[in-house]
Amino acid sequence: MSHYEKETLESEQALSPATIESRELSSTRELLTERGTAPGYKHLRGKRVGIVVLSSYPFDPRPRRAADALLRQGMSVDYICIADGKAPWREKSNGISLFRIPMEHRRGGKLAYAYRYSAFTLASAAILAARSLPQPYDLIYINNMPDVLVLSALLPKMFGAKVILDLHDPMPELMMTIFGKSPDSKSVQLLKFLEKWSVACADQILVPNAACRRLLVARSCSEEKIGVVMNSPDESIFPFRPARSRPVPQGGKPIVVMYHGTLVERNGLDLAVEAIARLCNKLPTAQLHIYGKATPFLERVMQSAKERGLRQNILHAGERPLEEIVAAIDACDVGVIPNPRNAFTNINTPTRIFEYLARGKPVIAPRTTGIQDYFDEDSLFFFEPGNADELARKIELVISHPGETLTITERGQQVYKAHVWKQERETLVHLVDKLFESNV
Q: Are residues 404 and 274 in the same domain?
């Protein structure tokens, strides 16, 4: 369902309600700044924040960007995460004090998840408690998963710290997707209860898009307590580049279709491989370049591709830092978001869409609520989730019709411009600053 009027993409009538709200908030702050009446977020300078996230630094972009944003406001930042490779357990990096908990981040069954979540929560609580003794924290910034990671903030909260719970991913929907559970199953109901309890422990809730906000309002939280901070790419890493028309590749030049992200079944990489297989007769030089950490699911996908004679068409480049992902995007012809439709992907707005658009690349994505809240058929190439034939046709369309591709990509970039990280960062910092207004 389109949220835009086709006649004028540049006007506010051409933008979704979620986009209009973000643009109006940003415009107000820019006007205040020009008049010299902006608050300057004076409540933040000199305050201490502890950020907790069950992932490694710097590979998880959302908490990394949040840490940088708060550091820019003069806050002292402790960043508790898991160890990855041979990095020291404690170090100072880019002005951030890192504390790495030695724990392998492996996927497994429900018991494996429960053990890892519990162990990390206890370890994080211990570090926050120890670091609170010489000087109490002013803010604890918890990133789910799990939601109950907010438990690690209880002692600092007793000493007066504000608590933010950033719900990157709704855990009940993930449980339904990963383990095939029904909404009424006991495990899903338990996660909904824990979500509601965790939300009650926090002073501010953050979510990545309008769909997640609607979901939480319906079951766990008042609307006033929730702020939307979208997963926009950092412009210092993904500087904007206008879209350009690309000629149809000739003379055996590879046609590069790119996927980067978490390589698990729910994200549909196997569908992208199937689409490439169906394109081979029409576009024999088409290649799918895959970026992400190797997983058992990826190994199965690569083995299947090999058995089907697609060794030269499906290439895995491994996990790369964001700075190298930029170069890979620049070298590709089109980015794909091959998500199937499930409880989780239906409400997800993948950051990868904005990353491709920031660098002027066309994007093919599934028709899901979390994406169509912001984009319509005139600003993105859509396919029906799970339909490999339609995905293959859209890849062929992008390659063979450069004029139409350029027009749609340029419109997509207008949507991206309404949600650049500079604006989302202002939203984040503004929400954090408001938490401390009552203390002044």
A: yes
- This prediction has a pTM of 0.83
Amino acid at 198: S
Strand order in the sheet with 204-207: 90-93, 96-101, 76-82, 48-52, 139-143, 162-166, 204-207, 226-228
Query: Is 71 found in the same domain as 126?
Result: yes
**Residue range of the domain that includes 392:** 255-417
CA angle 299/349/109 to nearest 5° reads: 40
Cα(first)–Cα(last) distance of the chain, in Å? 46
Task: Note whether 172 and 314 are same-domain residues.
Answer: no
For 344-388, the DSSP string reads TGGG---HHHHHHHHTT--EEEE--HHHHTT--TTTSEEE-TT-H
Contacts of the segment 38-42: beta carbons below 8 A, 24+ positions apart: 39/433, 41/73, 41/429, 41/430, 41/432, 41/433
- DSSP structure class, residue 138: S
d(CA 349, CA 352): 9
39-48, 151-160, 364-373: which range is least confident on average?
A: 39-48
* pLDDT given at position 40: 66
pLDDT digits (tens, 9 = 90+) for 106-133: 656 778 888 899 999 999 999 999 999 8
Mean pLDDT of the chain: 89
In angstroms, the CA 390 to CA 353 distance is 19
CATH of residue 112:
3.40.50.2000
pLDDT value, residue 314: 97
Structural domain contains residue 248? no
Query: What would the mean pLDDT of 207-221 be, rounded to a whole number?
Result: 96
| pLDDT on residue 45 | 93
Among 249, 220, 298, 310, CA closest to 274: 310
Tokens of 347: 């409400």
The angle subtended at Cα 264 by Cα 206 and Cα 417, nearest 5°, is 45
Considering the chain, what percentage of its residues have pLDDT values greater than 90?
78
What the block records as the tokens of 393 is 């046709």
Name residue 101's beta-bridge partners: 82
pLDDT 10s digits, 148-198: 999 999 999 999 999 999 999 999 999 999 889 999 999 999 999 999 999
What does the angle CA 430 – CA 211 – CA 347 come to, to the nearest 5 degrees?
125
Per the CB < 8 A criterion, the answer to whether 172 and 144 are in contact is no
